[in-house]
Design brief:
By secondary structure, this protein is an alpha/beta fold. Helix content is about 25%, strand content about 25%. The strands form three sheets. It has a six-stranded mixed sheet. About 35% of the residues are buried. One of its GO terms (molecular function) is metal ion binding.
Length: about 375
């Protein structure tokens, strides 16, 4: 197995097409053609993490946060970023980052927080826009069933909890090939009317090339007529943040004790208590001030996130309890989740959970 194979397995499960535009994801350091020796999974890549990879015989670091976020103008070792990258290069260690692609995954960071808090009936808090496309094509009636199955097998026609979804209309197609054509139906320069089925299916945007390939491979016409358009429907499998419910509602102070225990944090900054019980919980790992309004719209009793500033707490406006548990604390279980995802995909290589605590924030 090569590093490129690992990347393909990761991106099949967590497509980087859904990372935010500002982000820097994918292979950041290293040669993807190198043979894989071992995988170290970490929240952050630091010099200490690279040292750990060296000690444990791993030449691939799968990191949540990217070590390279802004452009590097030099590699002289004057910053922790440059020193980390230099050490990785010197020891032939590849560094891969998943970051907001995992934030926006239905099995990603926020699902991991929900699992940790044992929330039920979870759904995406802020669905990402423009993640769905629609294919419409036209096929002879007797080929429609086989073409639909090929499109379904390529990943089309999945809508939340349903698969094999399509819409079909029977009609007549007309065409006439010129002297250079090789028509499957009829002859050159003959106006042909053919009973056809119009098939429409939805698909996630990252599968477009695979869907179009399946269309061409399973359609008999020399020139296939089709349309692909982007649609604005909400996609409940891609987006940031999640909202779910506790099995049993709790008083606000009891919930914060519960939160401290299950998220393993000693300090929580919060807005004023509203003397309400907590049942519906919104979460967003990392910096989540931008999600306060969405948490309110979702009728959450509490919003669990991090990096709230002084004035952000005013945004609670007696509608919701805001709970800031710390950036590292909100994402600390991400590397455990990544190990679980990779272990399901890769069976013959060591996948090691980093033991290095990379939290740069200390409490006195």
């Amino acid at each position: 197995m090569h590093i490129s194979d690992v990347i393909q397995l990761i991106e099949t499960e967590i497509p980087i097409a859904y990372a935010e535009d500002f982000d820097n994801v994918g292979l950041l350091v290293g040669d993807k053609t190198e043979k894989l020796k071992g995988i170290l999974v970490t929240l952050d890549t630091t010099e200490a993490v690279v040292d750990e990879a060296i000690a444990k015989g791993c030449n691939f670091i799968c990191s949540f946060h990217p070590i390279i976020f802004k452009g590097l103008k030099s590699l002289t070792g004057k910053t922790y970023v440059e020193r980390t990258v230099l050490k990785a290069i010197q020891h032939n260690i590849a560094i891969y980052a998943i970051h907001t692609a995992l934030d926006n995954s239905v099995i990603g960071v926020n699902k991991m927080i929900c699992n940790q808090l044992q929330l039920k009936d979870t759904k995406i808090l802020i669905p990402q826009k423009n993640t769905l496309k629609k294919l419409t094509t036209y096929v002879p009636d007797d080929e429609a069933k086989d073409l639909r199955e090929a499109l379904f097998n390529a990943g089309a026609g999945h809508i939340e909890h349903y698969s094999n979804c399509s819409f079909n209309v029977n009609g007549e197609g007309t065409f006439m090939g010129n002297d250079l054509s090789n028509p499957v139906k009829g002859e050159r320069n003959e106006l042909r009317t053919e009973p056809e089925t119009q098939i429409s299916v939805l698909f996630p945007k990252h599968l477009e090339s695979k869907i179009i390939s399946a269309l061409h491979q399973n359609h008999s016409y020399e020139t296939v007529a089709y349309e692909v358009i982007s649609i604005e429907n909400d996609n409940q499998t891609i987006g940031i943040g999640m909202v779910g419910e506790l099995e049993t509602e709790l008083p606000e102070k009891a919930f914060l004790e519960y939160l401290k225990s299950y998220m393993q944090t000693s300090t929580i900054r919060h807005s004023k208590f509203l003397n309400k019980t907590v049942k519906r919980v919104a979460v967003l790992g990392g910096s989540g001030a931008f999600g306060i309004a969405a948490a309110k719209r979702a009728k959450a009793d509490v919003y669990v996130t991090s990096d709230l500033k002084y004035h952000d707490f005013f945004s609670a406006e007696n509608d919701i309890l805001l709970a800031d548990i710390g950036h590292y604390e909100s994402e600390q279980f991400t590397k455990n989740g990544l190990v679980a995802i990779l272990t399901k995909k890769i069976h013959n290589f060591a996948i090691i959970l980093s033991e290095t605590n990379t939290n740069p924030v200390k409490y006195f």
